[in-house]
Amino acid sequence: MTRPVRARIDLSALTSNLSRARRAAPDSRVMAVIKADGYGHGMVPVAGALEAADAFAVASLEEGVLLREAGVDKPLLLLEGVFAVEELVAAASHQFELVVHRPAQLEWIQALDRGVKLTVWLKVNTGMNRLGFAPHEALAVWDQLAAMPQVVEQHWMSHFSCADDPPHPANSGQEVIFQNLCAQREAPRSLANSAALLTRPSSHLEWVRPGIMLYGASPMVAGQASPIELSPVMTFSSELIATHSCCKGDAIGYGQAWTCPEDMRVGIVAAGYGDGYPRHAPSSTPVLVNGKTVPLIGRVSMDMLCVDLRTQPDTSAGDPVVLWGEGLPVETVAEAAGTISYELLCGVTSRVPRVYASGDAD
């Protein structure tokens, strides 16, 4: 028998969540964001399940090449563009579309053979202050790109900093800056991420870029549910591999960080931070054993964690455990651990087998 920890990936849930994104933004094309190995779900299988998307977005040339080698022929956008002039020829040969966000990238494009043809997305920094040209620079950069024979098509792009908090005033401010700028050079535009797709219809424009919502996690700030129902895609699960009867005063795990308040049963789960479960998750973080919630106790180890079984006296080794997913939203675990669902999903390690299935999501 192999170690029981698994990440079950429900491909039909991915397809369902994409359909929900389309219904929420019916007049926009959908660019599905599948970077970071499909947010930890496996980029190639994710791309197959999201075949109905109009395009895909990834973070690097290497991610794009992996998809092309797997037979994915949809438009592919490199969200950070290229990192060196040498990458441009490869990007062009694979027909990747490129984000342009800094002056060096302009120079690299201009130095290319005139026979190379590129589609570019000009990134504007409307307030995120991460990537992009300042609004007062953007029109000049646009015109510079338009004059390059290597550039055959241009698009506009920016990124919200606070879309997960819909009332935040930065959202309206960024949208106004972006819309006013784009009005001066008409071309396809993309601004909305998952949160904006669900809460700011005015930001949908020609292209929306759903990411985390496709994987069934709420894109909203901690404590806020998604405005629409989403189907969890990953169920991170394992089993109890031992149970113990402990006495009042017995200490659990490394550092003896948790002490039994009474005589009680403790369960040992075959999963730990070596699998991607957050080491900093505190005692009381919810875990499902036999479909019922029990609290995590003590420190998370590399390969194991411990749970309080006082409410489940009939459990035994081999009983199923869900760490997040079906019945236990990943954002609930993330909030308990003081992090975000993105980090948990992307952090499931390579030693955890991904098991692909099609469930009953609709």
TrEMBL record:
Top-level class of the enzyme under EC nomenclature: isomerase
Co-factor(s): pyridoxal 5'-phosphate
Reaction(s) the record says it catalyses: L-alanine = D-alanine
PROSITE patterns for this protein: ALANINE_RACEMASE (PS00395)
Classification via Gene3D superfamilies: Alanine racemase, Lyase, Ornithine Decarboxylase, Chain A, domain 1
InterPro entries: Ala_racemase, Ala_racemase/Decarboxylase_C, Ala_racemase_C, Ala_racemase_N, Ala_racemase_pyridoxalP-BS, PLP-binding_barrel
Domain Alanine racemase C-terminal: 233-357
A single GO molecular function term of this UniProt record: alanine racemase activity
Keywords attached to this entry: Isomerase, Pyridoxal phosphate
GO cellular component, one term: cytosol
GO terms (BP aspect): D-alanine biosynthetic process
SMART domains hit by this protein: Ala_racemase_C (SM01005)
EC number: 5.1.1.1
Alphabetized Pfam families for the sequence: Ala_racemase_C (PF00842), Ala_racemase_N (PF01168)
Record-stated family: Belongs to the alanine racemase family.
Protein name in UniProt: alanine racemase
